[in-house]
Design goal:
about 210 residues, binds adenosine-5'-diphosphate, mainly alpha, binds magnesium ion
């Protein structure tokens, strides 16, 4: 399968719809261990991306340029911590596919891995610190492993989604060590991290749109 800029645009549209539908739940999760704005922040970001991509001439746009446009619009729209984290993800993704007119399965997996690494680098969070990294990193590892094992893209992204889901679930047992919820210390125990929860929604939408 080859993925072009029209497919990437459709992917961002699918993410925006999924996040919009999940907005209230994400705000509720953030309300428990944060400041209750995570759903609003993510919806603002992905709706801004959707609007920005709608005005691109897709036939004259390479994947790198589309992803950089996504990064810029997400960053400009979001004041919360998730703004620079996802903007960096898209910027790193853009760099990972530089010069390519269309993406093969392996390129998409590389893009996905670059996004996860970008979030990790930007937030300086390690796995186990109760952040979106606890969903993104195992997802990227699972996708890469499936791809190396010769699986088709749909299956690799399915593996990524399953890993993200268990990663997000596991944040319940973690004490927050990064971001706003780290101020709660042990009181953050027992609650899912909102950024890990939204990562599952984002990854689920990526899988849905590309398979
Ligand atoms: P804010 O805390 O500024 O209101 P959001 O509510 O949009 O931002 O996002 C909160 C989420 O951001 C957290 O649930 C966590 O997953 C993620 N996060 C916060 N700080 C970091 C970090 N340093 N590294 C990775 N993810 C982080
Ligand atoms: Mg918040
Ligand atoms: Mg906030």
């Amino acid at each position: 399968m080859t993925i072009d800029t029209a497919d990437l645009k459709r992917m961002f549209d699918t993410i925006a719809v999924a996040i919009e539908a999940d907005k209230d739940r994400l705000c509720q999760l953030d309300g428990v261990i944060g400041d209750a704005d995570h759903g609003i922040a993510m919806a603002l970001g992905f709706n801004a991306v959707r609007d920005a991509l709608a005005s691109l001439d897709l036939a004259a746009t390479e994947p790198t340029a589309l992803l950089n446009t996504a990064a810029k619009s997400f960053l400009n729209a979001v004041g919360a911590s998730s703004g620079p984290l996802y903007a960096t993800a898209f910027m790193r993704g853009a760099a990972a596919v530089k010069g390519k007119a269309a993406l093969a399965d392996a390129d998409l997996i590389a893009l996905f891995q670059a996004m996860a690494q970008g979030i990790k680098d930007r937030g300086k969070a390690e796995p186990g610190e109760k952040t979106m990294v606890d969903a993104w990193q195992p997802a990227a590892e699972a996708a890469a492993a499936a791809n190396v094992a010769g699986k088709a893209l749909a299956e690799s992204l399915g593996a990524a989604l399953a890993a993200a889901e268990s990663g997000a679930e596991a944040t319940k047992e973690m004490i927050a060590a990064k971001g706003r919820s780290s101020r709660l210390g042990e009181r953050s125990l027992g609650h899912i991290d909102p950024g890990a929860a939204s990562a599952v929604t984002v990854i689920g939408a990526i899988r849905k749109s590309l398979s």
